[in-house]
Design brief:
globular; Rossmann fold; 40% helix; alpha/beta; five-stranded parallel sheet; 13 strands
Length: 393
């Protein structure tokens, strides 16, 4: 049973000296986590949601509970002066109460709003449930070291992985574990994303065309992302499709990773690969497994950066000869480990072995969907996806 989210202790500690911002996709659990922090760490706290008319008046009039040790502002980025507002409230009341801010747009990148908040806040990106959270085990990951796998019963590991693979990591469908809830979640989340969240904050005239783009993107997952191809499909300008993709990324519909660049290898193109925050939308099992893996790796990279300050990044590998490896994590621009995703264990990928030697990658893993696989061959660890993912955040 999942009782607390993986960011709670780190965010609570940071509230002692700065504001904490929590961004992430719609319905990923930001408000639930914020309320949990308030209930667990404070005798009294104040929750204010910008979407509530009564709360909005309280925010604009500066009416807070006098005994509140924490004030939670939910979706306040929809207020056009939100940055100046928070800067003023923090500078005025930082010795009286602490401030926690949540929102479904990227609070660290959203540019409408005035003065910079630099130095006044820590920013966290809340991800969907991962295998570690689903198992309710502590991650033992250590940067720069070989992955360490927790002791978990094989039947429990396999079952939790299968549930995560089938229903995704968003709390509502993952906890319900039934297809009706999943279908309704998909429909409602995507409709609200386009017709509520994006409409409220972005000037887009043709929302129906944007919704078509949202429906097209799952079929592009795992491939090099061609904006020209999308532009041709939708019959819109290149500038428009580029803007829309940026907006959807800002609202956590998808994320892009880019090819690792170094003098040792020459990348054929600079186009990124694109993945969804909700891998349960993808029908092809091989692509879904790749997206699920990429999501776990991104969650790990974000946690190590946001909570611990490590300069970790997620890339893929590709060169002019067409050799490609799905994922590479770096620390301070230096390779840490690479991961290639396959459905079956047919032996190590030639491309993975090539890049491991060429870039001197300390650790190389090849993931397969079959449970119970774990062996070494040619310095590559071929391992079940469920076991591999259990070592991440």
């Amino acid at each position: 049973m999942i009782k607390t989210r993986y960011l709670e202790s780190a965010a609570t500690a940071d509230l002692k000296n700065k504001m904490v911002f929590i961004g992430g996709p719609r319905q990923v659990g930001k408000t639930t986590m914020a309320l949990s922090i308030g209930k667990e760490g404070y005798k009294n706290f104040n929750y204010l949601n910008w979407d509530s008319l009564e709360d909005r008046k309280a925010i604009l009039e500066g009416r807070f509970r006098g005994d509140a040790g924490l004030v939670i502002f939910d979706e306040i980025h929809k207020y056009h002066k939100w940055k100046n507002y928070l800067k003023g409230e923090f500078d005025k009341y930082k010795d009286k109460f602490q401030i926690l801010v949540t929102g479904s747009a990227r609070l660290d990148l959203y540019r409408k709003g005035g003065d910079s908040l630099m130095g006044r806040y820590h920013y966290y990106r809340l991800h969907p449930f991962s295998l570690t959270e689903g198992l309710a085990v502590e991650s033992t990951i250590k940067t720069g070291k070989e992955l360490v796998f927790p002791e978990v019963a094989s039947t429990r590991l396999k079952k939790t992985f299968e549930q995560l693979f089938a229903f995704g990591g968003f709390p509502e469908p993952f906890l319900a574990k039934n297809n009706k809830t999943l279908r309704r979640f998909h429909n409602e989340r995507l409709d609200r994303l386009v017709r509520e969240d994006i409409r409220d904050l972005e000037s887009i005239r043709d929302l129906s065309a944007l919704q078509v783009l949202v429906e097209l993107l799952p079929s592009r997952v795992g491939s090099l992302l061609s904006l020209n191809s999308l532009r041709n499909d939708l019959q819109i300008a290149h500038k428009t499709i580029a803007l829309w993709m940026d907006i959807l990324e800002r609202f956590y519909y998808h994320f892009r990773i880019y090819p690792f660049s170094t003098k040792t290898i020459k990348s054929l193109r600079k186009e990124p690969k694109m993945y969804l925050w909700d891998w349960s939308q993808i029908t092809d099992p091989a692509v879904r497994l790749e997206n699920l893996t990429g999501s776990h790796l991104l969650k790990t990279v974000h946690f190590l950066f946001d909570a611990l300050g490590y300069k970790t990044e997620l890339f893929f590998l590709r060169d002019v000869e067409g050799r490609e490896v799905d994922f590479l994590i770096t620390i301070d621009k230096k390779p840490w480990f690479a991961a290639e995703v396959k459905l079956t264990a047919d032996g190590p990928s030639k491309h993975l072995k090539y890049f491991q030697e060429k870039l001197r990658i300390p650790y190389a893993y090849q993931l397969v969907i079959e449970s119970g696989v774990d062996f070494w061959q040619d310095k590559v660890r071929i391992i079940s996806a469920d076991k591999f993912l259990s070592a991440l955040i």
